Amino acid sequence: MENKVKLSRVEKNLTQQQLANQVGVTRQTISLIEKGSYNPSLNLCLEICYAVGKTLDEVFWNEKGEN
């Protein structure tokens, strides 16, 4: 799943570990989400959005046909 987690995290000057600590997962989970290899739950998506100060649409929305 394509997303803008890495871009959003970097804009907030957060490391993967810092973001992971804020949302209650491992650094490896954040890495997998950023690579598109793991589809997080809605609750985790929302926690990530709160941590980076963006909306769900800004971080996770893709238009149909985009990957």
In short:
With 67 residues, the chain is mainly α. The chain is 60% helix and 0% strand.
Describe the overall structure.
- The protein has 5 helices and no strands.
- Helix 2 packs across helix 3.
- The longest helix is centred in the C-terminal third of the chain and has 11 residues.
Descriptive labels:
67 residues; mainly alpha; 5 helices; 60% helix; 0% strand
**What is the number of helical segments per DSSP (H or I, 4+ residues)?**
5
Number of distinct beta strands: 0
Mean pLDDT: 94
Q: What is the end-to-end distance?
A: 7 Å
> Which structural class best describes the helix and strand composition?
mainly alpha
Task: Please describe the biggest sheet, giving its number of strands, its sense, and whether it closes into a barrel.
Answer: none
| Series of secondary-structure elements, N-terminal to C-terminal | HHHHH
Principal-axis shape equals: globular
Rg computed from alpha carbons, rounded to a whole number of angstroms: 11 Å
Pick out the low-confidence regions: none
Percent of residues in helices comes to: 55-70%
Strand % is under 5%
SSE topology sketch:
Layout: H1 5-11, H2 16-23, H3 27-35, H4 42-52, H5 56-60
Helix pairs in contact: 2-3
